[in-house]
Amino acid sequence: MPLPARSTPLDDAPQVCRLGVAALAAHYAAGTLSPVEVARACLGRAAAINPRFNAFTYLDTDAALDAARASELRWRTGTPLSPIDGIPTTIKDIVWVKDWHVRFGSRAFEGITATEDAPAVRLLREAGAVLLGLTTTPEFGWKAVTDSALTGITRNPWNEGRTPGGSSGGAAVAAATGAGVLHLGTDGGGSIRIPAGFTGIVGHKPTFSRVPAYPASPFGTVAHLGPMARGVADAAAMLEVLSGRDGRDWYQNPLRFPSVHPVAPRSFAGLRVGIWETPPRGTVAADVRAAFEAALARLSDAGAVLSRIALPGENLWELFNAHWYPGAAARLALLPPQNLHLVEAGMREIAEAGGRYSSVDVIAAATQRALFGAAFDRLFDSVDVVVSPAVGTTAITAGKEVPDGSGLTRWTEWAGFSYPVNLSQSPATIVPGGFGADGLPVGLQLIGRRGDDAGVLAAALAYEQLAAQ
Fold this sequence. Notes:
It is a single chain. By secondary structure, the protein is an alpha/beta fold. The chain has a single domain, classed as Amidase signature (AS) enzymes (Alpha-Beta Complex). 36% of the residues lie in helices and 15% in strands. The chain has an 11-stranded mixed beta sheet with strand order 1-5-2-8-10-9-14-15-13-11-12, with helices on both faces. The chain is globular, with a radius of gyration of 20 Å.
């Protein structure tokens, strides 16, 4: 059964803002649409949705139109730089873009005018992407909802009283509403995948080091960059461009990863699917569980061989905290001491907790993580892909770190399907997986073996097509 038809945040968008990468490239090649026309439409859409949803911190109209004109000329002469040449693209306000003022969502950080592009931005620019502007983030991307004292509350376009999730919440809103086609997010504990699940879009956390990063994140090797889009094929097209080498990132694997584009659907017939249904912390709401079980039924009907699994290792919540909290402490240590009072209380609290970890504690956590990661790799000796809910709940109240009345204190207590996959550094894709009782999206997460981004995206595309039948 296909997912039920219902109104979406894209319904009032201009038709041109609803097109994906392949359709736009075909129009550009045929001369039936211009990159300039599309850029103008997406910039207009961004300006129209921003007062309601607060997705953008900055739009650079002049630079975007200049890039679109250059792309138009390339398409006219049959010399596009890549399949995403002329495609409107946004960048999270935590990533350097040359000559743009990057503020990390913080009043305590005075911001920088970037003197160079981050590697991911360089790769996008070299592929001809049209960069529209910067999208909102919570302060330093520290939590799984998007609000800050600097930029205010970012709201879910399915329901303005709910959060789009975080920390790449602005990117998710831009994608869901048609304010751009491709969106660069970051994910240190679920920051691409949680907002993708909450807003009904696609988000992919790549294998660690596939996408080069610079400057290095204070949160260390749990931090990834990756694509967000409205469809799997678009996310794959973006990831192909992002999968380049950059000598500024020492963490990058020196071997080239296999191509992910063009992506073709993977057959579910005989595919071994491991079902992960219990997060390290928190619960799964009844309506989310019902949507997840319906997704599993689709997979079974398509021939997948399902088996229920448990993640290896223990105390994964504590293990993630032993990486995340010291990272927060390291981030705040870079701020002028006189500005620390401007930092959001929640981030100060986790940074203070992080500062209490000793060097021995940190090394012990790294050792424990290595054991977990190896055991996670071995899961894929018996399964081809692991599936789980994206999040155990639909979108929570906007402006809150935890669900109302839950008694929880930190976002990690309700987002437990995310951060174990950062600890393992495995690739994971979120696709729309149904709706909750409140009418809000529920995401399905597909996880693969490290390095197998192509396989995960192929399975995600197959599920996307299956759900549309």
